[in-house]
Amino acid sequence: MGMFKKNLTVLFLLWGSVTAFAAEKPNFILIFIDDLGWKDVGCYGNDFVETPRIDQLAAEGLKFTDFYASGAVCSPTRCALQSGQNQARIGITAHIPGHWRPFERVITPQTTMALPLDTVTVAEALKTADYQTGYIGKWHLDAGRNFYPDKQGYDYTRVIGGPHHPGKFRCQSHPNVKPKPGQCRTEFEADLSVEFIQQNKDNPFFLMVSPFAVHIPLGAMSDKVEKYRKKAEETGQDLPHPVYAAMIEHCDDMVGRIVDEVEARGLSDNTMIVFTSDNGGLYRRYDYREHADDNVATQAPLKGEKGSLHEGGVRVPLIIKYPPMTKPGTVCAEPAISHDFYPTFVDLAGGSLPANQTIDGLSLRPLLADPAAKLDRAALYWHYPHYHHSRPAGSIRERDWKLIEYLDGTGDIEIYHLANDLGETKNLVKERNGKVVDLKKKLAAWRNLVSARMPIHNPSYDPERAHEWWNLRSGKPVDSDGRKRFPPTEKDL
């Protein structure tokens, strides 16, 4: 009887330690805004748009100054985040399906049209650590429903397609799930986020919320738009565009709804909330003639915008609030990148990284504990061999040095010392030839390592027609005079 009681005591002790460990598994909520620029919210220096809930998140957590999207456009960054790999390994280097310029100097490589199903996603890795997983919003890693997030480890899937206007978007994965009458898209995505948190409050969970805002076509509730029109008149500030400013505030409202629900369920102390963007911000809208349309925002002092490898195209906000580790109001200047989320979440969850899949990201745990720490990484790399808002290019950032190599047959090189020139205003290619040779060599070696797909010479190059865009799906020229794709920005809800 004594031995039985002793064994029973051991079992209870073991069970207690197991349940205590399970209770310590943090929840993860990743809020992944579309096209939000580095300077688009208040805590990053925007004094026009009102983002009190995002700013509060930064005040209560850790803000990164040198965080980067893995890609200059959406699908590449989404691929990297889900796989933990630089997207060049998989070949999703353009937004799916991408652009096509058949008469340019080079033929750009075909992008992989869906995240391969044999990729072990961050959701699948967390499920092995007993997490419930949810995905809400834009996916953009598919070639149809057979490649939706429910095929990639997500238990709760609400893939939403369509613009921001009420009645113009729908839940593509679950057509019977419908927004309330008059709801804009971020309100609907907030409702679904609240639902997921309520359903999983008693289990460790990972939720990724990926709204379509602030992507074009612009659209926001008219009361918010009117507020920013009046504010622009009063201040004389013409950027950001009032509709765009209102869209950012919609995102702030969504963040507030999510944070409030976490607090209401008593989960704040054990939930990591991550706020970031999939690529740099938009400076202006374009039509397919490459004529400038309405100006949208400015990322100054950063150079460039979405679709380029300058800082404005890849540097994005990152705020992490996780009370057990992050201290309120702290700032981290260590360079980090989107595919670092995968190993960070798995690390903190006590899970295991996939044995047969290279993980390029690094856990951010050291930076959460000490924002002044350094990651054991030599450099960050980008591969964007496509025409979009710029030319095909690759890039490397090695500490304060950044090199951009254009892959369009011109051989053009740019090199900047970011610590002294955040705006990339002075190309030091002539002054620092030795550093150019060194970084070019490292960038080329990395491309070989990941088997990056490269542009090739175009025998049909025609300078007179190089500007033409053609549709990849139809194989026909795009109607450059049509404006249906980009309705006027003044059209609000």
Main β-sheet description: 9 strands, mixed
Structural class: alpha/beta
Q: Largest sheet, order of strands side by side?
A: 7-6-5-8-1-9-12-2-13
Number of strands: 19
Number of distinct helices: 11
Note down, in words, how this protein is organized.
The chain is an alpha/beta fold. The chain has one domain (27-378): Alkaline Phosphatase, subunit A (3-Layer(aba) Sandwich). Helix content is 28%, strand content 16%. The protein contains eleven helices and 19 strands. The strands form five sheets. A nine-stranded mixed β-sheet has the order 7-6-5-8-1-9-12-2-13. Strand 6 (156-161) and strand 7 form a beta hairpin. The protein is globular.
Key traits:
493 residues; alpha/beta; Alkaline Phosphatase, subunit A; nine-stranded mixed sheet; four-stranded antiparallel sheet; 11 helices; 19 strands
